[in-house]
């Protein structure tokens, strides 16, 4: 049996900032969508740009994965069947980002999933987050779930000051906004190095371009004491060379 695929339609569009567009989806197909999955990903299924009815083709067929991209569940309101996704926009061209930029109320989007929540241990005494703007939805959704008395640091790359978001993070978690268009910024590594070598009590979340994830993991492996079971590290996108 293939994955469950749901047809949804755009309920609302809200530009949070110059590089982040919030799109809320709805549809009766969300009636059995699970609650509490914020920060987990879904596979969004996009219409082929050439399709005349702008409807994605659901189901498993040759090449179906070409129309799928991973996106984070920012929130889900079961009562109103409203699933919210934040799309990073205006900094690259691609099937997903182009769809989000052109989206109108009533447009169709397929949804498969969800997967599991990403952070390895919400109850760890310390937390570390590294992510570019594509990981901001997952980091924000996770920070909102952490216990109030916890501590840590979150390093988040955003292209522009106005892309900062108000996040309901625990007071002990310091947000470091890395304001730069460079998603490969060395500031991630500088941040990690500044925390010292013993981070064995820390749950670590890394999500960015593949080479950034590799660089940070390599530093963890060569220079840090950390608990591998408390690490989530994932390439959220790959720079095509
Ligand atoms: C688990 C998971 C959760 C994710 N959640 C989100 C989310 O909530 N919001 C979000 O915006 N993204 C999220 N992403 C990232 C998103 O899936 C990718 O950025 C995706 O490649 C975008 O698809 P596209 O069709 O726009 O571009 P593609 O067709 O995949 O790529 C087109 C070109 O753009 C480049 N490219 C792709 N993404 C970027 C980028 N971010 N910056 C610069 N160049 C890029 C590629 O290298 C390629 O050259 C997530 C990824 C994963 C794995």
Q: Overview of this structure, please?
A:
The chain is an alpha/beta fold. It has 2 domains: 5-112, Translation factors (Elongation Factor Tu (Ef-tu), domain 3), CATH 2.40.30.10; 126-237, Nucleotide-binding domain of ferredoxin-NADP reductase (FNR) module (Rossmann fold), CATH 3.40.50. It has 4 helices and 12 strands, in the order ββββββαββαββαβαβ. It has helices spanning 95-102, 136-143, 187-193, 210-223, and strands spanning 5-17, 20-26, 41-45, 68-72, 75-77, 82-88, 108-112, 126-131, 151-158, 172-179, 202-209, 231-237. Strands 4-3-7-1-2-6-5 form a 7-stranded antiparallel β-sheet. Strands 10-9-8-11-12 form a 5-stranded parallel β-sheet, sandwiched between helices. Helix 3 (187-193) packs parallel to helix 4 (210-223). The longest helix is centred in the C-terminal third of the chain and has 14 residues, at 210-223. The chain is globular, with a radius of gyration of 18 Å. The two termini are 36 Å apart. The relative contact order is 0.16. The mean pLDDT is 96.
């Amino acid at each position: 049996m293939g994955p469950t695929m749901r047809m949804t339609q755009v309920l609302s569009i809200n530009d949070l900032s110059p590089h982040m567009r919030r799109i809320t989806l709805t549809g009766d197909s969300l009636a059995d969508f699970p609650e509490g999955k914020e920060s987990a990903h879904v596979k969004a299924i996009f219409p082929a740009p050439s399709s005349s009815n702008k409807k994605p083709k659901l189901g498993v067929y040759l090449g179906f994965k070409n129309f799928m991209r991973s996106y984070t569940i920012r929130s889900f309101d079961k009562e109103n069947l409203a699933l919210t996704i934040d799309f990073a926009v205006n900094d690259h061209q691609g099937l997903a980002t182009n769809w989000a930029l052109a989206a109108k109320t009533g447009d169709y989007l397929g949804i498969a999933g969800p997967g599991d929540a990403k952070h390895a241990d919400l109850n760890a005494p310390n937390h570390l987050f590294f992510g570019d703007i594509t990981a901001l939805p997952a980091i924000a959704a996770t920070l909102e779930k952490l216990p109030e008395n916890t501590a840590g640091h979150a390093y988040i790359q955003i292209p522009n000051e106005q892309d900062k978001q108000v996040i309901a993070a625990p007071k002990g978690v310091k947000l470091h906004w890395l304001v730069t268009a460079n998603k490969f910024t060395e500031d991630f590594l500088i941040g990690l190095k500044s925390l010292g070598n013993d981070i064995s009590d820390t749950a670590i979340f890394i999500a960015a371009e593949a080479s950034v994830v590799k660089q940070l993991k390599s530093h963890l492996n060569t220079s840090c004491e950390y608990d591998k079971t408390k690490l989530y590290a994932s390439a959220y996108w790959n720079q095509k060379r």
